[in-house]
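Example S7 (structure tokens).
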């Protein structure tokens, strides 16, 4: 550990450990700053830098599986329950509580009426077998599930070829994305409405 400008800095290895600690425990930056005897702003910088890096690395290392690979491990209970094996993606939104920002406009965009607090929101896309296929970047907490799905996964999915005509999605009613999928050269199966 070296001192630069009166501020302790950590080696890249220790920075990664700090970030993994924060992710595992869900601790606030102020707690980690106290434990590591660091400035809270330095902890925040480390966290943001490493999260961006880990996100990029994970996207490169783990591509979205093909439709055939997803069907090969399709749960038998789903085939029975939905009488098909066309569901390729299961979408759900989740949040990450954040400390209330100092600036008023940032407080406004991160405040979620649903979660009654300031948070970041992200989309998790899984396969029917439960494998996590994709996690979106964090969006401000006020974004609707519909917009979150649209701007984080659906547009990227079409651009990158992850979403193909005939793929079915499963999502709760809050997503309300059926009209979007119909409007983008997308031909869902006849049972599509059952899954939304």
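Recovered sequence:
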């Amino acid at each position: 550990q070296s001192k630069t400008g009166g501020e302790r800095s950590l080696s890249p290895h220790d920075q990664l450990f700090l970030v993994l600690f924060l992710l595992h425990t869900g601790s606030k930056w102020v707690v980690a700053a106290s434990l590591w005897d660091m400035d809270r702003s330095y902890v925040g910088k480390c966290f943001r830098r490493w999260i961006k890096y880990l996100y990029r690395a994970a996207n490169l290392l783990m591509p979205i599986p093909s439709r055939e690979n997803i069907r090969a491990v399709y749960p038998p209970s789903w085939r029975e329950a939905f009488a098909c094996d066309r569901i390729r993606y299961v979408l759900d939104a989740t949040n990450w509580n954040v400390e209330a920002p100092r600036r008023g406009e940032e407080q406004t965009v991160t405040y979620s009426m649903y979660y009654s607090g300031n948070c970041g929101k992200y989309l998790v896309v899984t396969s029917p077998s439960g494998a996590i296929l994709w996690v979106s970047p964090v969006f401000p907490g006020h974004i609707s599930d519909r917009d979150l799905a649209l701007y984080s996964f659906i547009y990227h999915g079409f651009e990158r070829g992850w979403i193909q005509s005939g793929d079915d999605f499963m999502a709760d009613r809050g997503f309300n994305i059926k009209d979007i999928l119909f409007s983008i050269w997308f031909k869902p199966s006849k049972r599509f409405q059952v899954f939304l």
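Notes on this example. Strands lie at 2-4, 7-9, 87-97, 111-112, 117-126, 132-135, 139-140, 168-170.
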